[in-house]
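Posting here for the record, re: zinc ion.
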Amino acid sequence: MVKSSPELATERPPETGDPDAGIRWTVAHAAAGSPWWRSHFERAHVDPKSISGVADLPRLPFTTKEDLRASYPLGWAAVPESSLVRLHASSGTTGKRTVCAYTAQDLADWREQFARSFVTAGVTSADRVQVMVGYGLWTAGAGFQAGAERVGALVIPTGPGNLDLQVEMLLDLGTTVICSTSSFALLLAETIEARGLTGSLALRVGVFGSERWGTRMRERIESLLGLESFDIYGLTELYGPGVGIECTEHEGIHYWSDYFVMEVVDPLSGECLPPGEEGEVVVTTLRKEGMPLIRYRTRDLSRLISEPCKCGSPFPRLARLTGRTDDMVKVKGVAIFPSQVETLLGRVEGVGSEYQLHFYRNGERGDALVVRVEAEDYPGLKDSLVYQLHEGLSVRPEVELLPLGSLPRTERKTQRVFEHRG
Ligand SMILES: [Zn+2]
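Prediction output follows.
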């Protein structure tokens, strides 16, 4: 075990994972260590000493990505800079980068969580894990590598892209586990198929994350690569990836409730929602020293699952993400999430994994939504799709059918929403 960092303003919380003790410690630690946090509590008229546990969470103010950016780069840090040992930053897809700085203990905690994620996906010390995600400033590579090494697996850190190198390593080293974005996994799977290599791989597990992916895409990746896939969850602000993952039941994501608490709130009113109701995921850390999070709004949309999992894990579950609060697009006054379209498309026979949504301004007829989708065309398919989408979205789209494999495949996150309304 790594020892606690020496210059902390407050003691470490007990290691028992008692969430009330963790909340008390986190609030006191943030207030003691950071003027930014002190003024954040003052603005909300909350006395940090009055917080006694999880039940008091609704009294605490939310924090947002904008708050994090306003205190850029290290205003959120609750320890002296000399206690910080590493920094990562988000990919900045929706604006300026946000940074996450870690103490040595934070990195050890992250490694434990990531190792637990690999174990949940059935990875063991006998596995060869090819890490095909970015290294460096981005959190992913470092996290996957540390977690897999903690499990005792052999790590092959190929990094992202470079299909020829990836295929060479898969074949030469008999890689059994791959870690990547789902977009890259699809690209790799189709490359393997095109080169006639399906069946000559030793793969058995795929750990995919950083974007939402549909059932069709998942089935295609699994069948072409011959593996079982696991959806991994994470965000840079909360350690990084590896803070939760699916188990072999594939009914939601187990998250590590001894390190953080999750709430789901109404994205508009901010009110807490009961388990089963969909809203925005909000996280509060219980042990994070460098940059604690208190009621941080993740912008991820999901719901808490209160029933125990069939796998017997003691850890609670979050449903697979349905999207992000900032994915919402309005057409003819109706709010649409790409995930809704994906779900509806997935119900129709013959539809492929790839689709695009195009939004146009269409003169006197108002806005228009054009859904371009890969499919094996057959009589009545287009009408059936228009009907299903109209029923499900309350907006009648135009549907364009495209041959399978014709939409672009990318190595990073795939763009599916195209706004042409200026
Ligand atoms: Zn489970």
